[in-house]
Amino acid sequence: MNATTDKIYDELQEILEKNRDAVKGYKKAAENTDHSGLKAYFERKATERSQFNSELGREIKAAYTDFDIDGSFAGSIHRAWMDVKSLFSADDAESMLEESIRGDKAAIDEYNDVLEETGISQSLRSLLTQQRNKIQQDISKNNSLENLH
After folding, report:
1. Rounded CA separation 17/50 (Å)
2. Is residue 67 within 8 Å of 57, Cβ to Cβ?
3. pLDDT category, 128, cuts 50, 70, 90?
4. Are 13 and 63 in contact (CB under 8 A)?
5. Which of 78, 95, 127, 128 is 20 to 30 A from 117, comparing alpha carbons?
6. Taking the complete model, does pTM exceed 0.85, yes or no?
7. Which H helix or E strand runs over 35?
């Protein structure tokens, strides 16, 4: 692989890792809230991110080999922070939602990094754009507990 391909590969790896970590974080958050709307939101987000990775994995397999990494350092820190916040805020659903939104904003940045690359296939670009837009829509739509019924 050339330097450009290596960079794209690394950025895609990062998205896959962050999505894996997000699935774990959302599941953990769903377990730690009594707010029914927030619990359903976190469960949906966990399922969605898992689906994102399945779709993305199929696209990447067409162009790259060996992309299975067990979890990222930054994602582990994010998940640990969610653990700490849930421990100290106990029933503070608002803090959990805020942390979720912060994580989603970081994910959008990761997607944007890859989308800036010119060497990715059109089908992969389309999928990445679709997934990024879904995350952005969730942030806009679900930015407060009042929006989570």
Report:
1. 11
2. yes
3. very high
4. no
5. 78
6. no
7. none
Residue 57 CB-half CA count within 13 A = 14
Element housing 144 (H / E): none
> From CA 121, how far away is CA 97, in angstroms rounded?
34
* Residue 39 identity (one-letter amino acid): K
What distances in angstroms separate CA 56 from CA 28, 68, 104, 106, 128, one per listed residue?
23, 12, 17, 18, 8
101 Cβ neighbours under 8 A, 6+ residues apart? 139, 143
Greater pLDDT, 18 or 49: 49
pLDDT digits (tens, 9 = 90+) for 30-66: 888 888 988 999 999 999 999 999 999 888 887 766 5
**Contact yes or no for 114/8 (Cβ under 8 A):** yes
Which of the 8 DSSP states describes residue 149? -
Backbone phi and psi for residue 146, each to the nearest 5 degrees, phi listed first: -65, -25
pLDDT tens digits for range 90-126 = 457 888 888 888 889 989 999 999 999 988 889 999 9
